[in-house]
Amino acid sequence: MWYLCVFYHRLLEYRRPEVESLAGLFDASIDSTATLQWSLPVDYHSDSPFHLVNLPSEELAQSIASRSILVKGIYEIWGEGRNFEELEEAIKSYPDDRKLPYLTPGSTFKINVDSFGKALSSHEQKDRLQKLSFIPFEGRVNLRNPEHKFCLMDNDVCGSNNGLAPIVQSRIFFGREVAVSDRKLLQTYQLKSRKYLGPTAMDAEMAFLMANLAQVKPGKLVYDPFVGTGSILVAAAHFGAMTMGADIDIRVVRDGRGPDCNVWSNFKQYGLPMPISLLRADNNLPPWRSGLKEVFDAIICDPPYGVRAGGRKSGGRKLLKGIIDPYTVPDDKRTGHIPSTAPYSLVECVHDLLDRAAKMLVIGGRLVYFYPILRDDNSIDTTFPEHPCFKLVAVCEQILSFRYSRVLLTMVKVAPYTEDIELAAKMKHLEFRENHVKWLEEGNLHSAVFSPLETQVNGVSEKSSSKPKYRGKYV
Amino acid sequence: MTDWRSASRAQIQLDSPEPDHRADHSKNKVQFEWLKLKYEDKLRRMRLLTHNMLSSNIKGVTNGFPLLIEVEKVVEKAVDFNADFLRNMFAMIEWNALVEASRTVGYSELPENAESSMLDSDEFLQKFHHALLELHLEEGALVCPETGRKFTVNKGIPNMLLHEDEV
């Protein structure tokens, strides 16, 4: 059945993939790589918060809304139209057997009046409500605890550029509320009240979205190879998963900022079960035993892109200076030796991540990670990393600055990790090792993001003044 | 009206029985240290599940699994029981390594051999759960069986990073 899915006007590209992922999570019969059927109300832009979605059952709609971060509510539409006359006609022609059970004499009800992009005064609300008097409500009004809730919604058109999606013509919707979401958990988990934070701690809303896209649920094992302060695992643990994390920086995973301010304390703060393990390990040379595979149900991470924080890998000095001579640690200095690390280019980091995930994820397991892209006009059709074991199911962009944005990629493991793939990955690993310096130069996002603007050719100045007015992805 | 500062001072005096007794100060401090230790015990953990997944990845080492355990301090801590998780994990566990590791840290209840049919027994699951998740190596080391290289475990975090010449 088709439902009206109303979203929060945020993170626009993340909204449909989140619902699809949750549909797959709650209904095992939905193929996890398939997409749901979507459509838009007549005249509407896909950036508008009103979307129509075909879901197999009302229970599924309720489950999705209860878990979703970006869904505001899901409604069964009784009627819609460009104006109240059309709305009335539509509601009257909606089948009675769908309406009457909710209008019975003994029941209680409430109608919410809402307009997207505009605050309605109580007077305006009352005006609009009175136009619904043709609906034969027989129950009593109860604003506190009604049995049935209805909603009258429209999209304000004020013509001017108010940052909202351009729509040709507004529509009015009237429907029965099937489920509404609860974003209270974002307040509980907001970063400003978290004890231990790092410079790239993942925002709570995004961390929960990542957990939803990774289909995290109780009893699943979730791994973050760049765990840092644990902000992504906190979200996964909230949804009941067992968590594991690794980081190359031992000060972050082991010490934090003292006994009551570290990764463990972040879990304790919310009463969540502790991670199963935290370890100091290198994503380039992970310490997993060779026979270990298909262990994790999801790998969720935010790799270091080299803009705010750069990646490091083991095997320092000799690579840094380009010296081929073997570097040796004297025997008497082995205990307590602090190994140096080398910079880790994004290309190599993502290669390692995909290869490792292909091996360590169960079939049907999900890899959810951020990938940075430069926002030149030339690179509109960016190609994303690929792997024979994975199918890319969602690409969601979040614009970070004028120069670059990051894209959340959701991949599902669809094929087993074979020996051929392992061999190819090993060859690539050696190639990276040999041409370390070259890759560092090529994958240097930092200079592209922070270099002065003049370097971009002179003609650009005129372009930047005629920036498109509507930039929906910014929200 | 009472100033808030004096109000809170009065509150403190109510809470502590002998507020002016300086001699008790050191005792309080000791207790505080002890509490802190106890608190840390609760948090820091390297479990045998982790041990079962790790190996020595030093260049040239062909059989770096299982790592030997050098125990300095082991802590036991109850963890919520989840049978489904255990059943999922069973398939990937190297049983002999788990038995050996649990003996090293002082738990010898696990049977020598295990097969998936045993997962129906609640008694077995409880033992498996205890060995896998409730025994924590807090201080010690994991030792490479081939080279003897020690990977230290400090505050429950195994340090698996290789030296420059081991990469």
UniProtKB/TrEMBL annotation, chain A:
GO cellular component, one term: cytoplasm
Any one Gene Ontology molecular-function term assigned to this protein's record: tRNA (guanine(10)-N2)-methyltransferase activity
Superkingdom field: Eukaryota
Keyword terms: Cytoplasm, Methyltransferase, RNA-binding, S-adenosyl-L-methionine, Transferase, tRNA processing, tRNA-binding
Places the protein is found: Cytoplasm
Extent of the signal sequence: none
Record GO biological process: methylation; tRNA processing
UniProt-listed Enzyme Commission number(s): 2.1.1.214
Domain Ribosomal RNA large subunit methyltransferase K/L-like methyltransferase: 193-317
Domain tRNA (guanine(10)-N(2))-methyltransferase TRMT11 N-terminal residues, every copy: 2-183
Record Pfam families: Tmrp11_N (PF25904), UPF0020 (PF01170)
Top-tier EC class: transferase
PANTHER family: RNA METHYLASE-RELATED (PTHR13370), TRNA (GUANINE(10)-N2)-METHYLTRANSFERASE HOMOLOG (PTHR13370:SF3)
Similarity comment: family membership: Belongs to the class I-like SAM-binding methyltransferase superfamily. TRM11 methyltransferase family.
Protein known as: tRNA (guanine(10)-N(2))-methyltransferase
Automatic annotation (TrEMBL), chain B:
Family: Belongs to the TRM112 family.
Highest taxon of source: Eukaryota
Stated name of the protein: Uncharacterized protein
Pfam families noted in UniProt: Trm112p
Positions of region (Disordered): 1-25
Species for this entry: Penstemon smallii
Subunit architecture: Interacts with TRM9.
Xref: InterPro entries: Trm112, Trm112-like
